[in-house]
Recover the amino acids of this structure.
């Protein structure tokens, strides 16, 4: 078996990378270790409108609900309502969504192998186990889009991401305050260093959290979340679809080595403020596929990919990481004070006007310029003195 480009991992980043490699004239193979696309699900399934645009799809049958805003709860349960002018995000069925993206790649000429596990790198080839049989696949360029653990990255000797969050989620019957609003919960009891959520759809909700790795297990935090006064008042009993997973934050210093490049979660191309990876992953994967196709013909070097994706989203990821670190240092008292500050009418208006889940730096800049800069610096730390 011989291909110009082999993409490992058939999630959104892998699907987009293989699609763009094929579009740019490369013979392309997409491999997936599981028996079906989109399984197992390890995602909240909340994606921005811009993410669907980057993935070059519209509101398909995978859209379960539309979100226009969010209720954010401080540890003391003060409610901050963030209203959007229109639809800001979609709750999606990730299995159907991923399959749609892979189908679009196949339409461009990509070949697909399921039940095929990457096992190692060689010179100009990879080793896999496909349907229980050891095989070698020859390829000029390898794209690792194989998620947080990235066997491809380890085999190539590429450093791991700078930080990892652990997460857990379940689905349950839930009566949301407003079915078009996501609910966000802060506090070191329910989600130390990050936040928890309830994402409503069709009388249900995906209830979960992500947290810094420490001595408290995600399951312990989830049980505390389920007893949170707001969640407990809306949760209707019974639980299904437990999901465990991790979120990589902070890309390694290099995402390329020899004939290998990483994209998506494997490269830490994930928003540090929300943990979402579909938008960033799609932006970077399209660059990866296009550069890989040209590199397979010796028309480009993989350094173009490194330069290209960092130019596209590097600043946003860097600022997002600084925001993440600042928020992660706040105790419950600091979070209460921050939510109270953001709950002022004039500040809520700025959030409504400039809030963007894919580009939080835009909102932060407006808050620094038009809000109480000294108050923000006090709340979020001196790092914000040099943000803008």
């Amino acid at each position: 078996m011989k291909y110009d480009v082999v993409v490992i991992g058939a999630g959104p980043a892998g699907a987009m990378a293989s699609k763009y490699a094929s579009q740019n004239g490369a013979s392309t193979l997409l491999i997936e270790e599981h028996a079906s696309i989109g399984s197992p699900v390890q995602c909240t399934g909340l994606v921005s409108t811009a993410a669907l645009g980057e993935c070059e799809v519209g509101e398909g049958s995978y859209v379960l609900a539309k979100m226009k805003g969010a209720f954010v709860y401080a540890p003391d349960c003060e409610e901050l309502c963030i209203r959007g002018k229109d639809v800001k995000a979609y709750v999606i069925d990730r299995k159907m969504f991923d399959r749609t993206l892979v189908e679009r790649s196949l339409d461009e000429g990509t070949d697909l192998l399921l039940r095929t596990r990457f096992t190692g790198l060689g010179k100009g080839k990879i080793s896999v186990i496909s349907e229980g049989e050891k095989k070698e696949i020859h390829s000029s360029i390898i794209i690792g889009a194989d998620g947080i653990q990235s066997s491809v990255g380890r085999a190539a000797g590429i450093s791991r991401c700078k930080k990892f969050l652990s997460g857990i989620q379940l689905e349950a019957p839930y009566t949301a305050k407003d079915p078009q609003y996501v609910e966000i919960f802060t506090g070191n009891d329910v989600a130390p260093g990050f936040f928890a959520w309830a994402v409503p759809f069709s009388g249900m909700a995906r209830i979960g959290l992500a947290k810094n790795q420490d001595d408290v297990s995600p399951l312990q935090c989830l049980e505390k979340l389920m007893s949170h006064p707001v969640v407990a008042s809306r949760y209707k009993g019974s639980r299904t679809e437990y999901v465990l997973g991790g979120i990589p934050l902070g890309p390694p210093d290099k995402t390329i080595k020899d004939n290998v490049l990483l994209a998506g979660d494997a490269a830490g191309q994930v928003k540090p403020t929300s943990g979402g990876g579909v938008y960033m992953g799609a932006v970077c994967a399209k660059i990866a596929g296009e550069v890989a196709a040209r590199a397979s013909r010796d028309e480009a070097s993989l350094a173009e990919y490194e330069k290209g994706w960092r130019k596209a989203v590097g600043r946003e990821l860097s600022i997002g990481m600084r925001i993440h670190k600042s928020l992660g240092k706040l105790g419950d008292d600091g979070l209460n004070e921050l939510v109270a500050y953001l709950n002022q009418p004039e500040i809520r208006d700025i959030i409504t006007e400039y809030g963007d889940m894919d580009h939080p730096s835009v909102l932060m800049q407006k808050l620094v310029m038009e809000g109480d800069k000294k108050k923000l610096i006090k709340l979020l730390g001196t790092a914000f003195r040099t943000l803008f």
In short: The first strand starts at residue 2 and ends at 8. The first helix runs from residue 12 to 23.
